[in-house]
């Protein structure tokens, strides 16, 4: 039963029921606004959905899978999603990175365990990440919102800044052993761009630090459990969610005091561009999407026969070889060239959450980094990378489900060019998405705001883009109401 609350008389429409659209709707509803969410698909979730793709009872994540930023999200914690059915599960080891030599580097939630396993590079790993993990919550307070703000923890932010400004290739020089360099390279590859560019080190630093602070958990029952929990929270606070309701023109959007769009800048410009100030419309049109993900889901009988058995204890396995191998393939991809040995991420979520498996069949989640708009089939390249480090893998596969780049975009229109990150992380766009502004959520159209992962703080199932955008909308709208009195 919905919780009855005194309403403010304010109304809002949220377009898109991905994690950020739902977070925006929830924050507005908790503040007394009558909220209506319109979702094009037949189910909510966006990038946080799960389904039986290959075998009955075997659950695969359709996109997002591991959630260090989710379990650490201050907004989800404030809402207490556990009361709406969400449970986090942690693997024994967060991430493994095997090498062709048979050696493997392991990322544990415990920085002490990680340091102990990296030998001579252990102290260097602690020097790089120790203070960031220790101060992660304070850093997150300043970093997980628009860049143009007064920091609450300037000294800690100043300690992070010099490292964050550096390219991945420069930061990697801190490590001497192939294992530690590869482990860092795999984490840093989540920036999804050329390793030689300034600022590219920042995302890898935060991902590793968040892992040491919160681990890399999965949601019990699949990533879709996160958005289902948020959907229940929206309902409990009086919000209404309508699925199967695509919005292709402004005429379809109901009248409301506030409109929030969990959409790409291109989609937002399509709906409201003619009303936007010229400078903002130009920024939306110039916004660059990034490289693509080519996803392959496997159903396997038993466990992957990793050459190094430690990989069989890790929720995530990064496959790409040495740091130099990863750098080479990532730089080629950034230039639009498909690598023969692409960087591949493998997810073994069932290790932490056995409820995803059935009848001795386990789900394996994987995707490769490929060029933007890649039209080809990378299924064999992904399979070969797994076989490279797990001889005999092909023999245990009982089913394969491929999502090509065009299919990825069709599945979710926010993933233009197959970009699951919501925009390129090249140059200043890494910091200033979707445009340089004190309030980057505001579209320049009265009452209309962008709340997708193309706005700060960017990708991750943390809901903070939606929360921040809803906060901006409430401030502007209520300030306007007061000025009219």
UniProtKB/TrEMBL annotation:
SUPFAM superfamilies: FAD/NAD(P)-binding domain. It comes from the Bacteria. InterPro entries: FAD/NAD-bd_sf. This is FAD-dependent oxidoreductase. It comes from Gordonia phthalatica.
């Amino acid at each position: 039963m919905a919780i009855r609350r005194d309403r403010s008389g304010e109304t809002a429409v949220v377009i898109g029921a991905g994690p950020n659209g739902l977070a925006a709707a929830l924050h507005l509803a908790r503040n007394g606004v009558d909220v209506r969410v319109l979702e094009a698909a037949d189910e909510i979730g966006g990038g946080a959905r799960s389904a039986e793709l290959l075998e009955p009872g075997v659950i695969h994540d359709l996109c997002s899978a591991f959630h260090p930023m989710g379990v650490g999200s201050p907004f989800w914690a404030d809402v207490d999603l556990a009361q709406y059915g969400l449970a986090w599960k942690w693997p024994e080891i967060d991430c493994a990175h095997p090498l062709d030599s048979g050696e493997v580097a392991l990322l544990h939630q415990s920085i002490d365990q990680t340091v102990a396993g990296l030998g001579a590079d252990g102290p260097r790993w602690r020097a790089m990440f120790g203070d960031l993990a220790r101060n992660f919550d304070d850093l997150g307070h300043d970093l997980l919102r628009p860049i143009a703000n007064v920091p609450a923890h300037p000294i800690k932010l100043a300690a992070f800044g010099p490292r964050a400004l550096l390219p991945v290739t420069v930061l990697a020089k801190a490590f001497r052993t192939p294992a530690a360099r590869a482990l860092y390279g795999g984490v840093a590859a989540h920036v999804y761009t050329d390793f030689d560019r300034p600022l590219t080190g920042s995302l890898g630093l935060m991902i590793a630090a968040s892992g040491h602070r919160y681990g890399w958990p999965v949601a019990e029952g699949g990533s879709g459990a996160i958005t289902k929990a948020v959907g229940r929270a929206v309902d409990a606070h009086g919000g209404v969610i309508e699925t199967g309701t695509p919005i292709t023109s402004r005429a379809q959007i109901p009248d409301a005091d506030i409109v929030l769009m969990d959409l790409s800048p291109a989609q937002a410009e399509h709906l409201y561009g003619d009303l936007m100030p010229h400078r903002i419309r130009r920024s939306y049109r110039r916004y660059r999407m990034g490289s693509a993900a080519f996803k392959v889901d496997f159903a396997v009988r038993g466990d992957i026969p990793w050459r190094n058995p430690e990989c069989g204890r890790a929720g995530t396995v990064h496959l790409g070889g040495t740091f130099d191998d990863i750098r080479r393939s990532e730089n080629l991809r950034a230039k639009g060239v498909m690598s023969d040995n692409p960087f591949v991420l493998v997810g073994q979520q069932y290790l932490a959450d056995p409820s995803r498996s059935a009848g001795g069949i386990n789900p394996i989640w994987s995707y490769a980094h490929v060029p933007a708009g890649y039209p080809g089939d990378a299924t064999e390249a992904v399979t070969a990378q797994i076989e490279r480090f797990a001889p005999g893998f092909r023999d245990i596969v009982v089913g394969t489900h491929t999502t090509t780049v065009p299919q990825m975009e069709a599945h979710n229109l926010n993933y233009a060019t197959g970009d699951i990150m919501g925009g390129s992380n090249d140059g200043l766009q890494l910091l200033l998405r979707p445009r340089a502004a004190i309030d980057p959520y505001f579209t320049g159209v009265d009452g209309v705001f962008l709340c997708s992962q193309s706005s700060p703080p960017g990708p991750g199932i943390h809901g903070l883009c939606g929360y921040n955008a809803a906060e901006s909308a409430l401030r502007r709208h209520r300030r306007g109401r007061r000025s009219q009195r």
